């Protein structure tokens, strides 16, 4: 049954974009009925801009609102786990920003809490809904691309002292990691979305760009389960910024746009091996319409999942895979060793990788 779901959004940095691009863009499906932020100015400006009357500075106040269906958590990463647990306990559905939590132990705790609950948790990975990556996925899933050979994933951004004025962004406790967890996470997710999981990796990490606790340079070599090889390169020290994914398949080479902050968005370069492959791609794309982009697409699918009891577009299991990858990366960087995935519950970093190096 379709009905309008009532949302409370907490954390009004990126949370403001959730309201505008995710919920207001789907105003027939959602009503943002309450907002919460410790910062009074953000609370007032967001409330005024979107006509939201209920404004709270204390997260607990949202839990007590009986009419709220969904709590959307957009606060710093270090706050996510306890907020998600509290929201599930209060019987709310949960949407939560990346990185979801900071260890496999934490995600297993959330999986257990969700299994005991009648409500669900959806991690945010809005760039999966971008048109370029959707097109590439459609071609790959149609079987046209053939055998995957190799991929590169570059997230070369620039961050200076002004960005790190927010203390949480500098620390293991606040950010749960550095450029791997907070910046490269989106494009890495697209790599795994298109190629499937890794079976082993070797990672190097360093803090070279800013005086922060967490890593700001990462170089990772992956052996993917599908047989392809992949390389990830991430930094916050690139004067010219870009996000770029290249994938070489037997019959097609894909190259994403290089706009830094719109991973997965068109234009993508799709290079066929010959005229026959080009014709098959044209035929596959003829009636293909990508979903609405980014937050609009992901929130729309979430509404469908809750109201029609269809599978969630992104799940805690997806987040677990991403945390498995992160655990392996930090352990590899600490020990200078190759790490096989998945990581087991008796792994030294199962409970977290804070202060990994
Ligand atoms: N999906 C994306 O593209 C994307 C982009 C940017 C940030 N993020 C993620 O969103 C989260 C927030 O990042 P940001 O850049 O908006 O941070 P931010 O520091 O700009 O905003 C966070 C807000 O949360 C508020 N806050 C902190 N603790 C709170 C609490 N206990 N109760 C209520 N309010 C609280 C702060 O006052 C602040 O206004 C992070 O997890 C970040 O990684 C995701």
From TrEMBL:
Organism superkingdom: Bacteria
GO molecular function, one term: nucleotide binding
Sequence ranges assigned to domain Gfo/Idh/MocA-like oxidoreductase N-terminal in this UniProt record: 5-120
One Pfam family linked to the record: GFO_IDH_MocA_C3
Domain GFO/IDH/MocA-like oxidoreductase: 133-249
Stored InterPro entries: Gfo/Idh/MocA-like_OxRdtase_N, Gfo/Idh/MocA_Oxidoreductase, GFO_IDH_MocA-like_dom, NAD(P)-bd_dom_sf
PANTHER family reported for this sequence: D-GLUCOSIDE 3-DEHYDROGENASE, UDP-N-ACETYL-2-AMINO-2-DEOXY-D-GLUCURONATE OXIDASE
Protein name from the UniProt record: Putative dehydrogenase
């Amino acid at each position: 049954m379709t009905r309008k779901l009532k949302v409370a959004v907490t954390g009004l940095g990126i949370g403001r974009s959730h309201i505008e691009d995710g919920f207001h863009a789907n105003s027939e499906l959602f009503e943002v009925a309450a907002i919460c932020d410790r910062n009074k100015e953000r609370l007032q400006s967001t409330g005024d801009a979107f006509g939201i009357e209920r404004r709270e500075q204390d997260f607990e106040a949202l839990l007590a609102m009986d009419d709220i269906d969904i709590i959307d958590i957009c606060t710093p990463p270090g706050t996510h786990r306890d907020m998600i647990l509290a929201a599930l306990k209060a019987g709310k559905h949960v949407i939560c920003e990346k990185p979801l939590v900071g260890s496999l132990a934490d995600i297993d705790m959330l999986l257990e809490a969700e299994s005991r609950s009648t409500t669900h948790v959806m991690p945010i990975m809005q760039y999966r809904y971008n048109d370029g990556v959707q097109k590439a996925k459609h071609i790959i899933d149609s079987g046209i691309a053939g055998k995957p050979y190799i991929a590169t994933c570059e997230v070369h951004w620039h961050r200076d002292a002004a960005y790190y004025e927010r203390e949480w962004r500098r620390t293991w406790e606040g950010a749960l990691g550095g450029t791997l967890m907070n910046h490269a996470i989106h494009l890495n997710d697209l790599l795994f979305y298109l190629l499937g999981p890794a079976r082993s990796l070797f990672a190097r990490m360093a803090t070279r760009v800013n005086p922060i606790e967490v890593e700001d340079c990462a170089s990772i070599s992956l052996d993917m389960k599908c047989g392809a090889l992949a390389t990830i390169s991430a930094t916050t020290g690139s004067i010219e910024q870009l996000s770029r994914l290249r994938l070489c398949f037997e019959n097609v080479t894909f190259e994403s746009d290089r706009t830094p902050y719109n991973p997965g968005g068109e234009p993508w370069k799709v290079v066929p091996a010959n005229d026959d492959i080009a014709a098959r791609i044209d035929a596959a794309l003829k009636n293909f319409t990508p979903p609405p982009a980014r937050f609009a697409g992901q929130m729309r699918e979430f509404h469908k999942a809750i109201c029609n009891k269809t599978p969630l577009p992104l799940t805690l299991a997806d987040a677990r895979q991403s945390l498995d990858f992160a655990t392996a990366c930090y352990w590899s960087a600490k020990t200078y060793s190759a790490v096989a995935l998945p990581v087991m519950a008796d792994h030294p970093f199962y409970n977290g990788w804070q202060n990994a190096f």
